[in-house]
């Protein structure tokens, strides 16, 4: 059996996902699937065949259960004792687009290919975005 390679240039589309009132994880899985190209019939695991995705209204995304009180984001500065923690509520107040972006990027591969996929993601707090010229198609986050 031979390996499939998509022929010619990969035609990338632009999509807009409205996250208002949607659950964070449901939006993230749908967007990660589009970014990785798994909805594309020419999907190949080792080639970036995904499309561009714009997520709007990141400040209106919701989270279920008690996660709003108990979820903590950690990062490490690289120095001894340099672990930093930030609660979900504080981070969501400060940068809601970062919360959505981290949820989506965390579902992509943690390789060079995954970083290339993540570059095609644009997340905005409100309902305005500067990508009108690309004529993005609107899609529902949860299908």
Question: Would you mind describing this structure in some detail?
Answer:
The structure is a single chain. By secondary structure, the chain is of the alpha/beta class. The protein contains five helices and six strands, in the order E-H-E-H-E-E-H-H-H-E-E. Strand 1, helix 1 (24-36) and strand 2 form a beta-alpha-beta unit. Helix 1 (24-36) packs across helix 4 (96-105). The longest helix is centred in the first third of the chain and has 13 residues, at 24-36. It is globular, with a radius of gyration of 17 Å. It starts with 13 loop residues before the first strand and ends with a strand. The mean pLDDT is 94.
Strand-helix topology:
Blueprint: E1 14-18, H1 24-36, E2 52-56, H2 67-70, E3 72-76, E4 83-87, H3 88-94, H4 96-105, H5 112-118, E5 121-123, E6 137-139
Parallel strand pairs: 1-2, 1-6, 2-5
Antiparallel strand pairs: 3-4
Helix pairs in contact: 1-4, 3-4
